[in-house]
Amino acid sequence: MPSTLLTNANVATLMGESGYGLMNESAILIESDTIKWVGSMSEARRFVDAEIIDCRGGLITPGLIDCHTHLVYGGDRADEFEQRLEGLSYSEIAERGGGIRSSVAATRQASQAELLQQAKPRLQQLLDEGVTTIEIKSGYGLDCENEIKMLRVASSLGDIHDLRVCKTFLGAHALPLEFANAADEYIDLVCSTMLPQAAAEGLVDAVDVFIETIAFDTMQARKIFDCASALGLPLKAHVEQLSNIGGTQLACEYNALSVDHIEYLRDDEVPELAETDTVAVLLPGAYYVLRETQLPPLESLRKHRVPIAIASDANPGSSPLHSILLTMNMACTLFGLTPAEALRGTTLNAAKALGLDDQIGSLEPGKQADLVIWDVHKPSMLVYQIGLNPCVAVMRAGRWRKPPVVGEA
Amino acid sequence: MPSTLLTNANVATLMGESGYGLMNESAILIESDTIKWVGSMSEARRFVDAEIIDCRGGLITPGLIDCHTHLVYGGDRADEFEQRLEGLSYSEIAERGGGIRSSVAATRQASQAELLQQAKPRLQQLLDEGVTTIEIKSGYGLDCENEIKMLRVASSLGDIHDLRVCKTFLGAHALPLEFANAADEYIDLVCSTMLPQAAAEGLVDAVDVFIETIAFDTMQARKIFDCASALGLPLKAHVEQLSNIGGTQLACEYNALSVDHIEYLRDDEVPELAETDTVAVLLPGAYYVLRETQLPPLESLRKHRVPIAIASDANPGSSPLHSILLTMNMACTLFGLTPAEALRGTTLNAAKALGLDDQIGSLEPGKQADLVIWDVHKPSMLVYQIGLNPCVAVMRAGRWRKPPVVGEA
User: Fold this and answer.
1) Is B136 helix (H, G, I), strand (E, B) or coil?
2) Which positions in chain A touch B334 (Cβ < 8 Å)?
3) Which chain B residues are closer than 8 Å to A81 by Cβ?
4) pTM of the prediction?
5) Which residues contact B382 (CB under 8 A, 6 or more apart)?
6) How many CB atoms lie within 10 A of CB A374?
7) pLDDT (tens digit, 9 = 90+) per residue, B341-360?
8) Which of B378, B387, B389 sits opposite A321 (nearest CB)?
């Protein structure tokens, strides 16, 4: 079988309990779509039949994983962004039709082809930065037809752009206007019709709920979790972003894949989280955009060894952020993560947050060959520099999505 | 003379006292290196001999101007960034040779060719985002030979990359180790030898001083300002970044081109600033990286109509930021500027901060044809989206540095 040997690289394997799992002056052997071997340059000499790609001292990391995005939506919220800075209040903006409702209206109005066209440039930056797996949520359709339309667009993006797309059903993202003051009825619709239909079409890899005072309470979330569990679907939850109403505790009860945001999670709640397999997903983009000051309980998460992932939260309102590298810098600058934690957060722990850590997220034999070659000598450079993209080459499932330029990589 | 007509564009002219000076569905006529005419599509029909470029509803802005950078330096400070996040204190990092001194050592050690090579990728992102004028400071050489070396590299970047480089002498950036406890002697060397020699080589467009408790006091700055004034060179100053020791007042006394940083400027000092031609240059990147909480006196600056520019402050320590679009977003998100103020801050007011507003910074007849075509319909999109770069084409002095792709622009 033809094999490829990447040589003369500093390899951030992400193996081990913490840190980069860095192996300097190393090589990686790839056969078909799989990593076969990682080791030192001297040992690599025995692979005499492999095609050799000389990485010239560059860095190799796993393909990056953005494990929490709302990348598919109609329209933009630039006017609202501008109005807020010009002094309008949130309520005045809402009166003018702003807020999430404007995204729902624009998403419902857009055709599948239009949504796809609008999502492409947003995805392109993430692709350019070496993202090989992305999670994309529904949640701006808020009815059966439009939630399914969003998930189909997410699915198409994966087919067109050669990356893995994890599709998350987030029907319980906000209450649609037509169900004002009838949240329980909407939740019933989600459970009886919307989620089962989307799942029947094979469009749902996980189910998410926004548990918050401005969204859904834990009783309503429980109904959705029960419904999802009955369908055999894993769970995720937006929790403790603006207040603490017990979302994390509920998610722990159901052993959810992840709890996302968690700025308002209390230190005394972290031990319970640590007893589950649930990943803490931090979203510094929303923290930045909203000028939040409440920090997530990082020290407690570290102390209790809760795996921490980070993600862009790309969305039209609270986080119009489309760079995974900037997300990593923000996680360090704003939340105090170390660069190694930031890289684990967009590789191995992001894979865990998607239930895929047996397949991707680290560079070790048996895992899928998703990797990035960078024109830097050490991983901290990826996180330290703001606004630069040193991505040289991207391999997805053993094939070059962006091939190295000979004499450049 | 051959002329070019850019048609079907939304043009942010930046003319007028405030706002974008937006002219929708308009056209721009360019002859040689100069803007000849800006007006409506219907009036544009009379220019029958011009080559027509159809902008298809895209946005045209002036070429962007980054008016405060330290883009040329040796090495990086990624290790220090990582150590700080791993819990080391500033003094421990300094003991290990970190801080500005490490950049001075690396800059002195690097050849002119090496410095040029290292600066290129940092500049590339700014070029890709439509920057047509950049200011670059010396200040990591801190002796005659190395300050001049830095300014030569800055000058070369302009020759190689087709952009205007404004070279600022910042010999008084920090006290070099060999002058420890002898700041006045160092200032004497700057005034007697370093600055005059750099100026004699034609490498100095302006002279800057870092006035701060950890740098130089106002007495020392005054000596440099007197020396620069005697040489006929305009002045700039880093002031009120970490404390207030009267730097802005001194700069006002000398009618400096700009006062930069000014988080600690008091409201009661703004009226005096408003009586000069001095521009307030805000640097949100350093505010972000240093987790500063003291905000610049924006309301007072607005009230007294002080022109506000913003810049990346690209440097290896406090602002490794290389995106002018992200700088604009940060100015809005962190400082509360409006998107229109942010765009004025990287065009007309940035030109003022460099003493070039008679030549560049707005799209009006007689000014140099520096402009950018963007794949967005309204200027707020440039500021609202984080991590995307919708730049389609860049014209510098009437020539396409990045030409529009026919059928795409």
Assistant:
1) strand
2) 291
3) 332, 339, 380, 383-384
4) 0.97
5) B59, B61, B325, B328, B339, B343, B374, B376, B390
6) 26
7) 999 999 999 999 999 999 99
8) B387
